[in-house]
Write a structure and sequence with these properties.
Blueprint (H helix, E strand, L loop, with lengths): L6 H12 L5 H4 L4 H17 L7 H7 L32 H4 L4 H22 L5 H5 L11 H9 L3 H21 L3 H8 L2 E2 L4 E2 L10 H24 L4 H11 L8 H18 L8 H22 L10 H14 L10
Antiparallel strand pairs: 1-2
Helix pairs in contact: 3-4, 3-6, 4-6, 8-11, 9-10, 9-11, 12-13, 12-15, 13-14, 14-15
Length: 338
């Protein structure tokens, strides 16, 4: 079995492999904004460097942490688990090993860990502390965070901006999933660029230029957010907005008066005839309840729409049936919405 590296040996290897020419020794005395700029410059460089078949940022992260959220220590190479110690981890994460380092070495290690931590979160697309990373007060990844939107739109750190925009996209998808706003969830999950004729996937899997990649994501997120806020200004119930968009099958660019009337009709039916009816229903009764709602959808379709709207088996019909099922199970009137 190979001898496990000491902290000093591991530190020297990381500096040679990931920070050659990066002036780590000079940078350890930096503070505040200067330290933040240095850290961002290193992360940008490591995200851009593909010498190992993938971004060096990921390989640096892997020296310390697993792919789990929360920075769980990575089991160290060639060390079997024992009942007494479990898996050993990188000696640079050991307080005992750190005590063998000089003050200069510890200063370099602290800076390396700051860079590696942001590499970990950006590479794996986990949210991170925006104040620590970018110097922002507001620590959320929503498009309502105007400072963050401006930062990713204008920063010279284009790789960081791409990964941050993708994190914003993932965060929004989870938010819409939690709120059962399926048209918005699907719009982002399957976001397509007509300009580049491609789906918007992870930054490492795209050939779209960084600034365009960020713009495409932000434009769609802002469009959905503005649509939702327009509904609030019109004093529409959240479920009526969602029903309106489910009838369209997408998040449209405007509210249609006739579609809103149909959505209100379905809302009233669900509120009076469907809410909670599936909580204690057996399979037969549940089937009847859902069949009656499907009949209501067809009735509304005939009353308000021309041929081709909300056809049985369509995506729009499926959205409405799923919405009705949630209502029947007691999930209704989430007035705070999104």
């Amino acid at each position: 079995m190979a001898k496990t590296k000491t902290a000093r040996e591991e530190l020297a290897w990381i500096e040679r492999t990931f920070f050659k020419g990066a002036s780590l020794a000079k940078a350890i005395g930096l503070e505040g904004e200067a330290r933040r700029d240095y850290r961002l410059a290193q992360v940008e460089r490591l995200l851009s460097d593909m010498r190992m078949g993938g971004p060096l940022a990921m390989y640096l992260s892997d020296r310390f942490w697993t792919a789990a959220e929360g920075r769980e220590p990575m089991p160290w190479e060639d060390t079997p688990a024992t009942p007494e110690t479990g898996y050993l981890t990188n000696p640079l994460l050991s307080l005992e090993e750190q005590q063998t380092l000089t003050d200069s070495e510890m200063g370099r290690l602290r800076l390396i860990l700051e860079v590696a931590g942001l590499c970990h979160d950006l590479s794996l697309h986990f949210t991170f502390d925006l104040k620590e990373a970018f110097g922002m007060r507001k620590n959320d990844f929503l498009v309502s965070n105007k400072r963050l939107v401006e930062w990713v739109s204008t920063t010279p750190y284009e790789q960081i901006a791409m990964h941050t925009a993708y994190i914003m996209k993932k965060r929004a998808i989870r938010r819409y999933e939690y709120s059962c706003y399926q048209p918005a969830q699907d719009a982002l999950a399957e976001l397509f660029s007509s300009e580049y004729i491609t789906l918007i996937r992870e930054p490492n899997d795209t050939k779209i230029p960084p600034r365009d990649y960020v713009r495409i994501i932000l434009d769609e997120m802002l469009r959905i957010e503005r649509h939702w806020q327009r509904g609030r200004r019109l004093k529409l119930r959240p479920d009526v907005v969602i029903l309106h968009d489910e009838i369209y099958g997408v998040v449209p660019r405007q509210f249609d008066k006739g579609v809103l009337q149909a959505a209100q009709d379905l809302f009233d039916y669900m509120d009076s005839e469907l809410y909670g009816r599936l909580v204690e229903a057996d399979d037969f009764t549940a089937g009847e309840v859902m069949d009656r709602f499907a009949a209501k959808v067809r009735e509304v379709r005939a009353q308000y729409f021309a041929e081709g709207w909300i056809e049985d088996g369509s995506l729009e019909f499926s959205y409405l049936m799923a919405h009705a099922e949630r209502c029947g199970e007691g999930f209704w009137r989430e007035e705070d919405g999104l």
